[in-house]
Amino acid sequence: MTKIVTVPTTPFEGQAPGTSGLRKKVRVFQQPNYAENFIQSVFDVVERPQGSVLVIGGDGRFHNRDVIQQAIRMAAANGYGRVLVGQGGILSTPAASNVIRKYGASGGLILSASHNPGGPDEDFGIKYNIANGGPAPESVTGAILARTKEIDRWLTVEAADVDLDAPGETAVGEMTVEVIDPVADYADLMEELFDFDAIRKAVSSGFTMRFDAMSAVTGPYAVEILENRLGFAAGTVVNGTPLEDFGGHHPDPNLIHAKELYDLMMGPDAPDLGAASDGDGDRNLIIGRGRFVTPSDSLAMLAANIEIAPAYRGRLSGIARSMPTSAAADRVAEALGVPCFETPTGWKFFGNLLDAGKVTICGEESAGTGSDHVREKDGLWAVLLWLNILAVRDISVDQLARTHWARFGRNYYARHDYEAIDSEAAAGLMRELKAALATLPGQAFGPLTVSHADSFAYTDPVDHSVSENQGIRVLFEDGSRVVFRLSGTGTQGATLRVYLERYEPASGQLDADTGVMLEAQIAAAQEIAGITRHTGRGAPDVVT
Ligand code: VG1
Ligand code: CO
User: Fold this and answer.
1) For 377-416, what is each residue's pLDDT tens digit?
2) Cα–Cα distance for residue pair 379/95, rounded to 1 Å
3) Is the domain of 345 the same as that of 388?
4) How far apart are CA 118 and CA 179, in angstroms?
5) Which end of the chain has fewer CB atoms within 10 angstroms, the N or the C?
6) Are both 156 and 130 inside the same structural domain?
7) In a shared domain, residues 360 and 446
8) Are residues 436 and 447 located together in one domain of the fold?
9) CATH number, residue 67
10) So what family is this one in (predicted)?
11) Domain tally for the chain?
12) Does residue 260 share a domain with residue 391?
């Protein structure tokens, strides 16, 4: 029954699966054998007993259903016993992580390009998660990449498409495919973690919110949890129907792409809380009435208050943040007497720490926050934790932020992205920067003097694996810093990310303008890296 497709002349011309799996234009994925070779490479290298369970789901973007049908036939030919697939081909990234863990799957394929736009001319992506529910670690993605370079055949069975909209079981070859409710398990998990009664009470006393699902995957989850289970008014969730092209927008919950939400929250008709999530549901944006909370601050504020939520009471073991994320969380860890870990960018680096119980909450500056409840960052989880804290403390987002800064001080923070720049120019910039590292300490850039500069390398505290070249850090004597990194998730040219940070103690200016506070760091970054000289760009495309 197994059919072998040989592809001797079209070896996989992929890139290293980056921070989050493989991302390319849809047209690239539509080439004959392209997605198949990648999926087969995964099946060839990942550990799994014969007859294993595989989870498949995606964010509903264009091309989702086609790849799911092909992946199902290939799973059958590769000896899987059962595939669990979300109804309609839908599973948010955190929901997929939960399904993998809950049903003891050997892994899962998550089809998404996250916050990248969707549609026939836009982006698609495939990512493999391992049995703990988290993104495959570098040892696995490295093996997948090596396999893609030599693959010469993929296996499939001849079978009709499965009806992805009809819940229930179908046989495909010797394998069983079960179409599952994508929302129920996840919503139940959230109800176990948080004090839904307290939130419901706040809602009935007039607490209001808007959740912008950005026409991406979280719509059905948000409607079920926020409107049906927590009692928020119908219409609280906007853009709640997943669309194949996300309505033509970037499903990226930041101040640029969620501008409408931002404007609402800064205006006279703002509800108490504004929130949004990205294409695949793992990111979150939090805006209070008149108060935007940076993701780095959100991590620190959630960590400081996490024990308010029932499932976390008395069990904050540690905090982890990615290197470019601000050090706001470090101050909370210090005050609470728990360890703080600094990892490279990408959720896969949190997996071992979470599995070993070394940390309970983790986060990234790119709007990702999560905990040990799954092994992915989780957008709605962060929104619910905020809701739980605000409801129990009976406090506004703005008040909470001010109280936090008055205790811990404030880390002013911004990220400047230079998108779709020439790949060679970007590589040249990083190369030059790296070569100059040793000469930087002691040099002055305006009012700032460099105290330390390095290329970030990380040794995993659990398996001792080493990851090098994870970004250039330049620290200044006043404790501020700039960080330079090239994105691993773009699909066009290169994206340079410049991360800027400055700490202001509790006795300092706690309500100043971020752009003004970071002026010296912005100028220093330009001078140190020669951004304009290398890229021809005078200003960043996106500031978050
Ligand atoms: C970006 C973010 C990173 C995040 C990654 C995946 O990576 O900076 O923090 O983990 O996206 O997020 P990069 O390499 O482009 O900077 V998602 O929401 O795409 O799964
Ligand atoms: Co995402």
Assistant:
1) 999 999 999 999 999 999 999 999 999 999 999 999 999 9
2) 11
3) yes
4) 24
5) N
6) yes
7) no
8) yes
9) 3.40.120.10
10) Belongs to the phosphohexose mutase family.
11) 3
12) yes
d(CA 83, CA 79): 11
Instruction: Indicate whether 458 and 503 sit together in one domain.
Output: yes
- pLDDT tens digit string along 452-489? 999 999 999 999 999 999 999 999 999 999 999 999 88
Ligand 1 atom 8 nearest Cα: 366
Listed in sequence order, the residues at least 6 apart from 235 whose beta carbon sits closer than 8 Å to its beta carbon are none
> Ligand 1 in contact with 278 (CB < 6 A)?
yes
Mutation to probe ligand 1, out of 15, 19, 128, 278 (largest number of atoms < 8 A from CB):
19
Taking the whole predicted model, whether its pTM rises above 0.70 is answered as: yes
220 contacts: CB under 8 Å, gap ≥ 6? 90, 182, 183, 240, 242
Q: How far is CA 82 from CA 44, 169, 444, in A?
A: 17, 10, 61
Task: Provide the pLDDT for residue 488.
Answer: 86
Which two tokens mark 169? Answer: 């079981």
Instruction: Please confirm, yes or no, whether 277 is among the known catalytic residues.
Output: no
Backbone angles phi, psi at 191, to 5 degrees: -70, -30
Please give the distance, rounded to the nearest whole angstrom, from the Cα atom of residue 5 to the centre of ligand 1: 34
Instruction: From residue 70, give the alpha-carbon distance in Å to each of 8, 36, 37, 161, 177.
Output: 20, 8, 11, 8, 13
Are 414 and 398 members of one domain? no
**Ligand 1 atom nearest 497 alpha carbon:** 16
Q: Looking at residue 534, which CATH number applies to its domain?
A: 3.30.310.50
* Same-domain pairing of 377 and 503: no
Q: Which of 385, 408, 431 is the last residue of a domain?
A: 408
Q: How far is the CA of 127 from the centre of ligand 1 (A)?
A: 13
For 492, the domain range is: 410-543
From the candidates 20, 112, 114, 487, give the one annotated as an active-site residue. 114
CB of 366 closer than 6 angstroms to any ligand 1 atom: yes
Instruction: Out of 408, 424, 442, pick the residue that ends a domain.
Output: 408
